[in-house]
């Protein structure tokens, strides 16, 4: 563990050192302790438990056919893997399978009525209705915990009435969500800025050399003070002199646009005011279906300190979290713990709730969106979403794996949406593949 204290030779100072060190060991657990509503010293055990549950749930996936089961999910606090099963006679097959030998005591079977086949069929029909009635501002989920399709929308929006009446015929759950999950609908598009494809461009123009460090979760702002959060550093290995800082594409919506349609961005540290510290130029960005943008920094013409870390300065011990890799989440990770770092609300942790193939929000259609019960607010968009890399004994240190880029959030409903990391690194339409900078490969780039 990194130690920020010095060993003292006087007995009284040595005792103080032990006290401070003990406090710092636990301080990095605070976001997770807040999430689970437990004492910080209970977090390591829960992390070991979570890791075991996720492994068991992944092994379980191959045993659950979509005709007889309605999915599975984990619950860390109860230390259970919940399996939705239509016919309890199939329960024994799961329990007797050699793969599940060490997980048998963790399995809990819920008898349900909807199979995954039925749920997927209903979901597709509802998507067709959404298109037919041109419905906006809604979220449609398949939620394993309630074994049903759940629709979130505004009951008071009269334009939704026809859709609601038809959707009710499918016996789905319709919930009122009167507050929009994002503020993207308030933005105005710049000239010809509906979509700028991710393409390889020339280096940005020369700028004054800098001596600052930009971390994931730091703030970014344009010349008119509109801001968002920095994500993580990536590089196209064919052009290693240009390092790209990821964030959301809608961060560029308000411009001000240069003659080529690009937007300049400046640095904001946590709890700071607007600065004139230039970071780079966003020349490539999309608003939908993947909301992503890339701020270009020419490494041969800047003293900007580039290191793959995430801002975590509320923690006394690990002021930075080091990026060691990335992970692509799947449905079997639903219920697992994720965290984010953002300029507005800093580091918070929550639970992965759903994975959406398609999400319609504020008149825009997004693809590949993950939803979490996670506290965030306007200004956090573009920040990194990550999971702590834990030791076998559940000890959290300073290493993390990137799982996504924050798209939007609503602090009132405690909901956060984010794109998965693989959709930020790869643009299949344009044949672009970027590499995430980590502590192990940063030396190869410099």
UniProtKB/TrEMBL annotation:
It comes from the Eukaryota. Keywords: Hydrolase, Protease, Signal. Coiled coil: none annotated. Gene3D superfamilies: Trypsin-like serine proteases. GO terms for molecular function: peptidase activity. One of its GO terms (biological process) is proteolysis. Residues 1-27 form the signal peptide. The keyword Protease applies. This is Serine protease.
């Amino acid at each position: 563990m990194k130690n920020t204290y010095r060993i003292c030779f006087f007995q009284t100072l040595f005792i103080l050192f032990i006290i401070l060190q003990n406090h710092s060991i636990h301080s990095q657990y605070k976001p997770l302790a807040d999430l689970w509503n437990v004492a910080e010293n209970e977090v390591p055990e829960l992390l070991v438990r979570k890791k075991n549950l996720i492994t068991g749930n992944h092994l379980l996936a191959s045993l659950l056919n979509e005709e007889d089961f309605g999915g599975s999910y984990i619950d860390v606090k109860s230390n259970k893997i919940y399996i939705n099963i239509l016919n309890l006679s199939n329960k024994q097959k799961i329990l007797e399978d050699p793969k599940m030998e060490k997980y048998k005591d963790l399995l809990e079977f819920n008898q349900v009525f909807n199979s995954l086949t039925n749920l997927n069929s209903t979901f597709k029909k509802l998507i067709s209705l959404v298109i037919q009635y041109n419905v906006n501002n809604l979220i449609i989920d398949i939620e394993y915990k309630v074994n049903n399709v759940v629709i979130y929308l505004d009951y008071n929006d009269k334009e939704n009435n026809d859709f609601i009446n038809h959707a009710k015929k499918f016996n789905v759950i319709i919930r009122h969500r009167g507050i929009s999950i994002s503020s993207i609908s308030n933005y105005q598009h710049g000239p010809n800025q509906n979509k700028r494809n991710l393409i390889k461009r020339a280096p940005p123009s020369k700028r004054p050399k800098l001596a600052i460090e930009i971390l994931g979760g730091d703030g970014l702002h344009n010349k008119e003070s509109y801001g968002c959060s920095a994500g993580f550093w990536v590089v196209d290995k064919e052009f290693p002199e240009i390092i790209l800082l990821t964030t959301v594409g809608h961060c560029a919506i308000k411009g001000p646009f240069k003659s080529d349609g690009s937007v300049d961005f400046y640095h904001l540290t946590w709890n700071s005011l607007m600065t004139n510290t230039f970071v780079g130029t966003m020349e490539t960005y999309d608003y939908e279906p993947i909301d992503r943008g890339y701020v270009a920094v020419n490494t041969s013409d800047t003293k900007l300190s580039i290191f793959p870390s995430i801002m975590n300065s509320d923690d006394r011990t690990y002021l930075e979290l080091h990026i060691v890799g990335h992970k692509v989440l799947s449905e079997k990770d639903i219920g697992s713990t994720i965290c984010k770092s953002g300029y507005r609300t800093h580091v918070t942790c929550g639970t992965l709730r759903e994975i959406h193939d398609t999400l319609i929000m504020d008149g825009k259609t997004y693809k590949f969106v993950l939803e979490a019960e996670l506290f965030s607010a306007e200004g956090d968009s573009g920040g990194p979403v990550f999971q702590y890399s834990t030791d076998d004994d559940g000890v959290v240190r300073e290493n993390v794996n990137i799982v996504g880029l924050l798209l939007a959030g609503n602090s009132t409903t405690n909901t956060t949406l984010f794109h998965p990391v693989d959709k930020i690194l790869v643009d299949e339409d344009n044949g672009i593949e970027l590499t995430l900078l980590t502590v192990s490969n940063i030396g190869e780039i410099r």
